[in-house]
Design goal:
The chain has 302 residues and is mainly alpha-helical. Helix content is 60%, strand content 9%. Strand 2 (175-179) and strand 3 (185-190) form a beta hairpin. Helix 3 (38-46) packs across helix 5, helix 7 (86-93) crosses helix 9 and helix 15 (220-230) crosses helix 16 (250-268). The longest helix is centred in the N-terminal third of the chain and has 22 residues, at 2-23. The radius of gyration is 23 Å and the shape is globular.
Length: 302
């Protein structure tokens, strides 16, 4: 209920923020701005002319900058990155999930990429390189390597004690993945089953094979279709040898579905989702020249 109310109130908050921007009340605006979800801030930035966008970006708290950069389109992201100092960009990447960091890493200057990689421990660096080794529009490019795995011969009681000692689970974790000693995927154990079954049962007895793992090179549109048809929250990703690489979660799939919808709508108007609607006139005209030329030619033919 609370999430639904927040979603309904989002347009009102954005409208109030726009009014505060026009009134010039920066203190009020900063407070309102940083009370928004990063995706809402990103939507506001994309809808503002360049001069106002730069002003609003300066008011975004540093703790939100990384998440906001994830949600804006490619060209707006590049514009915002050009405004930021190296230390600001490094700080913005801290705390981002591996798959999210992979999404924006290529847009960062070389000096920043070097510092980001140096600031990571060996395990996180290896995870990032694993994601970056796959094309962005594949399951491997979507996946997050932060997974919880167990062995088939371990009992429910042992796993529960391990999870309590671990303290917290990765976001969107609805199940654990059972793997062999060489990390080959064997099956899935839902958290609900883990909590409701006999503590003496093993993971091998409890695991299911209802949902096959996703191959790393599967196109992201096929991944989205699989999540839609099977009502998945998360799914394991494997390589050709069956070794578990990571998992895909529903929040990443929603982004794929949204991007596909936006792409279809903008393509009908001869636009691209990564373009900035407030780019300089000469730049926009150059990009749209081919599309306009085709339209003009077909009009003459008609």
């Amino acid at each position: 209920m609370t999430a639904a109310l927040e979603q309904e109130n989002a347009p009102q908050r954005l409208q109030a923020l726009s009014a505060a921007l026009h009134d010039g009340t920066l203190l009020q605006m900063r407070k309102m701005l940083n009370g928004l979800h990063p995706a809402e801030i990103a939507h506001l930035l994309e809808s503002l002319p360049i001069a106002q966008r730069e002003l609003v970006w300066e008011l975004v708290d540093s703790e939100h900058e990384g998440d906001v950069l994830l949600h804006v389109n490619d060209e707006v992201r590049a514009t915002l990155i050009r405004q930021m100092e190296t230390h600001e960009l490094v700080a913005a990447t801290e705390g981002l999930a591996t798959d999210d960091l992979a999404d924006i890493l290529h847009d960062l200057p070389e000096a920043v990429i070097s510092q980001v990689l140096q600031s990571m421990d060996a395990q996180d660096r290896e995870r990032l390189e694993s994601v970056l080794s796959y094309p962005e529009n594949t399951a491997g490019g979507l996946m997050n390597t932060d997974t919880v795995t167990v062995r088939a011969d371990v009992t429910v009681d042992v796993v529960l004690r391990y999870l309590r000692r671990r303290g917290q689970l990765p976001p969107m974790t609805d199940s654990l993945f059972v793997v062999s000693r060489d990390d080959k995927y064997q099956g899935t154990v839902a958290l609900g089953d883990l909590l409701t079954h006999d503590p003496a049962m093993t993971m091998g007895e409890l695991m299911t094979h209802d949902y096959e793992a996703i191959l790393a090179l599967l196109p992201d549109t096929d991944v989205a279709a699989m999540f839609e048809y099977r009502n998945l929250i998360s799914a394991p990703v494997i390589n050709d040898e069956g070794r578990l690489l990571g998992r895909i979660t529903i929040d990443d799939v929603v982004d794929v579905i949204r991007d596909e919808a936006e792409h279809s709508l903008l393509s009908m108007a001869g636009l691209k989702e990564e373009e900035d609607m407030f780019a300089p006139v000469i730049t926009s005209t150059r990009r749209g020249a081919v599309w306009l030329g085709v339209n003009l030619l077909t009009a003459f033919l008609a």
